[in-house]
Structure to design on (207 residues):
């Protein structure tokens, strides 16, 4: 972690980037380190999902936007709407098949506390919010000249899967058959979030 922060400091100093760029890096390092490391161990204190959403749903794409614009003025408005629910989808879909292991390890995840059925419903809700946010960004032209309409179109695929999974929660069991972990559309959700992040930082910094 110390080496990473030192590299960030040298990068900001040599390339004359805003100090907030280093702040993002330090915050990401601290949240990543103390996600499971004592004495804080955020994942064991009911804060794992929030930590994950902030680190990968705000700081990482936010850093890309900061690199592109050199200004964090509209950063939260631009990033938080689609990126935070996208990351919630990811962390929830990872926690669903790991529930028993997390219980045994004392990890107080949202799925441990509320159950798998709640998790599938939450994924459906978060996917709906993410697609709505992406649609808003496309219509408002926040990332012009980048055309966000293809992103909205592809977001309909995981949205459909999530809504289908959420609609079947009544037929699901909290203990699925072994060998069939309900890791629904994990790769799709991941690529969707990655597409958002890479698109955010696709242009070079403004002069």
């Amino acid at each position: 972690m110390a080496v990473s922060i030192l590299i960030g400091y040298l990068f900001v100093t040599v390339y004359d980037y805003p100090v907030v760029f280093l702040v993002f890096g330090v915050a990401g390092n601290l949240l990543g380190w103390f996600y499971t490391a004592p004495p804080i161990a955020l994942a064991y204190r009911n804060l794992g999902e929030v930590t994950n959403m902030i680190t990968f749903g705000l700081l990482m794409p936010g850093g890309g936007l900061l690199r592109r614009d050199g200004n964090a003025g509209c950063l939260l408005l631009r990033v938080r709407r689609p990126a935070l629910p996208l990351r919630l989808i990811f962390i929830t879909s990872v926690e669903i098949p790991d529930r028993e292991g997390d219980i045994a390890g004392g990890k107080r995840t949202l799925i441990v506390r509320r159950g798998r059925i709640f998790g599938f419903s939450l994924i459906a809700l978060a996917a709906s919010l993410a697609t709505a946010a992406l649609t808003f960004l496309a219509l408002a032209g926040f990332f012009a000249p980048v055309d966000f309409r293809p992103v909205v179109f592809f977001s309909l695929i995981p949205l459909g899967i999530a809504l289908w999974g959420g609609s079947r929660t009544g037929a699901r069991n909290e203990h699925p058959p072994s060998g069939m972990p309900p890791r629904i559309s994990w790769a799709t959700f991941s690529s969707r979030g990655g597409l958002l992040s890479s698109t955010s930082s696709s242009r070079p910094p403004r002069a």
